[in-house]
Amino acid sequence: MNPGSGEPQPYPRRTDSDAPADLGGQEDLMAKAKDTVTVRLPGENRAVSWSGGTFAGDSELVARAQGLASIAEQVEVAPPGGYATAGADSRQGAMVAMLGAARGRGIVVEDDPELWDGIIDTADPDSGGDIIH
User: At a CB cut-off of 8 Å and minimum separation 6, what does 128 contact?
Assistant: First the structure.
């Protein structure tokens, strides 16, 4: 590539040994991931996400999730009997609302055990986890 030839130029890269391994981009992505949660419907090109109090994605799923969150509906998310409250002010509440919107067919994309705190009791590993009612 010749400078000034109109060809696209590669981004400049630091080659010195003092260059940081990460200039913050990856950390920003990881921080953002901790503020979001996504539920998708397997076998369909439909998903709904929540970030910072706002639902986005498939319009039907968004409307259902917002409706469940607005009335703080109790949704069964870990059958049998694992109920939690839908909401729009926390990741867990949003996850519950989106799973309710998916009507039992949703899969949570994030692998984050904190999302399930208080819904599934994993104190007894032999039982596979008892559901908290």
Answer: none
